[in-house]
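Entry 14. Two folds queued back to back today. First construct below, sequence then structure tokens.
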Amino acid sequence: MPADPRAVLSRPAPDPDHTVAYGDHPDQIADLREPAVSGPVRPLVVLVHGGFWRAEYDRRHTGPLAAALAGLGHPVAQLEYRRTGQPGGGWPNTLSDVLAGVTELPRLAAAAMPGRVRATPPILVGHSAGGQLALYVAARAPEAVGGVLALAPVADLAEAYRLDLDGGAVAELLGGGPSEVPDRYRAADPRTLVPMQSRTVIVHGEMDQQVPAMMSRDFVAAARTAGCDITHFELPECEHFGLIDPESAAWPVVVAALRSLHEDQRPIDAASPTR
């Protein structure tokens, strides 16, 4: 694990191969990376970045993750969206942007990278707040999602509001607390959106100080009770940022979890730490 786990957020990465727009707003774009090795044509992997939905965090901090996945043979899209703290960010545009992007990106990626993207729904990889957004899209448009890998997701917005994660981030996203805007929480909170049809893998680090691991434990328990196809891995000695760092000890589990979501793969083996 790097001495500073946050170092991955500013680590340089190769430039993307293409940038496409899925809407008219400057932030309705995605960076595309072609598979760097030959092999079977795979579904598009759409990365939904975290940062507690705030403008100071953008898709560029997923550059090392995206480059590493492309290096393993995946076509990758780093999705951008409007965020809080900028015009048009927050409810409802942050959520509707991600939904629109996931819906449009397979077509845009296939046109930009002919012969490199399988014509099947994409696999979503969302980290932190991006995990919430990925789970939201899977619940709202299951036909557009081939699977979800949620890394330390904010999987319970009401609980995140109660815990005041990142100093009011959920209130900024939705415009208030659960008692003030209950309809928005019902519409956006993954905890209220189960059961989900998409196959899902949750990976969380026990040492996470940004999003408590208990949030994923509780979400997975509720999803399993509702009959969801969901797998949960909780990694000891892993904090929040190691899950998006290809140089971390968590990386092999993240790669195996992603591969398990391909339709021709078996579920990930339970030999890794899991609950």
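Second construct, same run, same settings:
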Amino acid sequence: MEFMIFTEPQQGATYSDLLRVAQATEAAGLNGFFRSDHYLSMGGSGLPGPTDAWTTLSALAVQTKGIALGTLVTSATFRLPGPLAIAVAQADVMSGGRIELGLGAGWFEAEHTGYGIPFPPVRERFERLAEQLEIITGLWATPEGETFSFDGAHYTVVNSPGLPKPTRKIPVIIGGNGRRRTPALAARYATEFNMPFSDPDTAVAQFDRVARACDDIGRDPSEIKRSLVHTLVIGRTSAEVARRAEQLSRSPEDLADNPLAGTPAEIVDRLGRWREKTGISRVYLQVLDLDDLDQIDLVVNEIVPHLG
């Protein structure tokens, strides 16, 4: 099982904060550092303000050496597909082939209106996501010396050289609870499907929908890695768990379905049962207190030896 640290910088973090956590992630021997792609806090001041996801990851690409780096997830409403393909490919080259692209339709209207970004209705957002996935992967896959064109309802690409090229086929992460469009897009484009803040039964049902969508187009469902994300609330004792939960304004009810909440022994047990039931092979540990790196040490010393 792979273990990735996942951060929410829009809640309040500088680049220096993210660099410190990413380097601690690497030094601890975990598999990757991921960040959200948001421009507005979802509670609190968010000071000193948002950091751009792909600017951040490009810098981390040259200030780390071996961990995977990526977004969970970039919003298709934020960037045009051609420039996004260029930015992600360049970051991948800068990292030596460690970038992964999580891409979604976008959902947080306030950050769009707050920064002058159009926010179309949900159907159009999914249409744009589908076209972006086709364009971005098409640009990367176009052989050097050939060109890529696309004529869609929302984007048109004419005779693009599809440059620069990434170092390899960049993993694409798709996730969420949509019952029809999301599994269909995952079957066509994803190398990983992520279930965010879910319970096992909901995750199994959605993973099954992705598998059926793969069957519909003749793709082997086992080609798509299964993953989950939950908030990390770990402590050596129940009292320490409760303290960290209180600091995050989490109630006991909030932690009931969270496999990453509890003492190390409890988390090992819950994650083991999750893996057995759902087939997950990657876990994103959402770390909300970026000053509390003791949590990372606990994961490395008490969780990874049993499940990693």
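Quick look at the second one. The first strand starts at residue 2 and ends at 7. The longest helix spans residues 122-141.
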